[in-house]
Sequence to fold (283 residues):
Amino acid sequence: MIPYFADVAAETWSLDPSQLGVLVERLRTEGKTVAAVMPVAPFGAPIDVAAWEAFETTTGVPVVIDAAASFDSLTMAGGLPPVPVSHIPIVVSLHATKVFGIGEGGFVITSDAALADRIRRFGNFGFFGSREACLPGWNSKLGEMYAAVGLAQFDQWADTRQEWVDLTIQFRELAAPLAPHAHVPDVMVGDWVSTYGLLQLNDHESNLPRIMNYMTEHGVETRCWWGGGCHQHPAYNKFGREDLVQTERLGKTVLGLPFWRKLPRHEMARSFSVLADALAADT
Fold:
């Protein structure tokens, strides 16, 4: 397949299924075939699966949801309503950087039994229930070590999740005095937990590289999360795309700060103090 980039919605930082439906029809009138769509649930935010089911029904285009960081928002933890299991495959990561990190691996949620069977076969050399390869495949089974860590993680998940909740509350409290220069993005506010400490600069013209350099000089590592966007990377800059106004705006204004379990409050507070100085120097 050949990638084609569409812009995200300002409110959700993800593809909008209604807007994408219009784009699909336009591309079809131009003689192009839209083979699949891959919306991303940014940073583990909840995603409207029902809206994507309606998109599939209306357009006939299959959807695969990248919900790599969404382990928490796909469960009933924290009083969240359960996400209905859909035939649409939802891919979740168990990498060490995620809230339910086991080191490596992941899983797919789907109510499509045939698809689930095909995924199992594909990850087991094409075998399933016999030693005869029924389709091309490879060995992507979860290693025993990661599986054992995962079982142990389940036993302590309630405590782990509470640590992320406490850290998130602390982050939001420390971010509040930065207004109006920076704020916790609306997309990151909810009853779900994430492993990302993100701020959005309110001034779209702020010099993010300069602010990051200032913080580095004062001993605080940061991330400009997307750079200019995937479409500007050498591997992808020759593929087709829409006008990616929101994507490029987010690339210029979203800053990742230190954020991990066991991070002492005074260390997090120091990061915010250095950022406040950097923002003041930028005005």
